[in-house]
Amino acid sequence: MSSSREKKRSIRCAAREIVKGIPNSQEDGVLDLPSVSTTPAYECFAERISESSAIAKFEEDAQVGDILIVKVKRCDIVGAYVKPLCFATRIKRDLEWLDLQLLTPLSALSRRISVGQYLEARISSVNPVKVELLEAPPLSSNELPDYFRIGRELPRHTDLRTYIEDSKMMRNTYLAETLRLPTTSSYTFLKLDGVEMDRAEPASAIRKRQNEMLADEYVVRGVEHMRSGNRESAIVVLNQALEINPHCVEALVARGAAYSTNGHYVLAEADFDQALSLMPTHSNARNYMVETLVKYASLLEVQGDLENAKSKFEKVLRIKEDRRARTALAKLDRKRRSPSVEILENEQDKAKSKSVKRDVEEERKKRRRTLEAERERKRESHDNRKKLREMEEFIKALREKK
């Protein structure tokens, strides 16, 4: 532990020495490396930034007191219209490519300005951004910030890696020796107090995560097939998901639901069992399992396989309480105790069913009679209106003859 602390302390000391200006070249003892501050702004390397988002970012980052380098575009009695070029303090930002002009008053200035001059302006307020010109003399093109001038000279479509490789920024042959670190060290200067990173390539973990994400995409496609009614295609897609990730609970549940809808209760039960073994609290797996077992047990009961039907109903109750399973189990117990009771119950059910059918038929007849009476009433009303209209026309014709 102490050796690790001493190593970190030596790293920090070496870093401080470099910051203080220890040369890295033997030529005249001068530090001949480009500073990070001279690296062009991010906008010089990015190609997919929209102008609207860049303007919104500028307005978001601007703070009162920031100094901007601006170029005078035109002057009138209202003031000077200036175009922001870049930030001169705090942050690096290339603004020249934006279609952005700011109005600044001239009343506070003690000198004249002309179009095309490079001036310094201070942000006086934000939301919206307003600036005021400083009394400093105009700048020449060589006096603009280094990062802005270098960014102007970059060829189009230059990426950051190419810029760094072409510059001298990485060509410090004495850096590893000064910091007392081997070139293969996994230390990072972002956190000097951090621990050494694991050198083992995390390929298996990355591959596992990628397989999980790909399987989830197949599950989504399978569910879409199920919603459109194409359950066979859904099962094919869900099989692919389980080939990629055999432990995908969502794929097991979705395929079990498709099997259950198609009437393949044994396959559906197997999928739900596997899903619940992987995630016992999965609500959809529990609900679909209950529905599948109730349907399967009812089918077994009709087929006369009472023992398996009873075991399925009992399995339902082990998952969660269900009134249908409880009632079916009681019915199976009564069957086992006395077959005559079942016959009597069946006869009672048939009699009740006939009574219900009679009531339904009577209700239908009553509705038909009511509808017929209503239609007859409407017909009479229509005939009466027609006769009245004919009578009025007849009287009108008689009056016209007179």
Overview of this structure, please?
With 402 residues, the protein is an alpha+beta fold. The chain has four domains: 1-29 and 172-192, no CATH class; 42-166, OB fold (Dihydrolipoamide Acetyltransferase, E2P); 205-340, Serine Threonine Protein Phosphatase 5, Tetratricopeptide repeat, CATH 1.25.40; 356-402. 57% of the residues lie in helices and 8% in strands. It has helices at 2-20, 51-61, 146-153, 160-166, 175-179, 203-227, 231-244, 249-261, 265-278, 283-303, 306-319, 323-337, 339-401; strands at residues 67-75, 80-87, 102-104, 118-125, 130-133. A five-stranded antiparallel beta sheet has the order 3-2-1-4-5, with no helix packed on it. The longest helix has 63 residues, at 339-401.
Features:
single chain, 402 residues, alpha+beta, OB fold (Dihydrolipoamide Acetyltransferase, E2P), Serine Threonine Protein Phosphatase 5, Tetratricopeptide repeat, 4 domains, five-stranded antiparallel β-sheet, 13 helices, 8% strand, flat
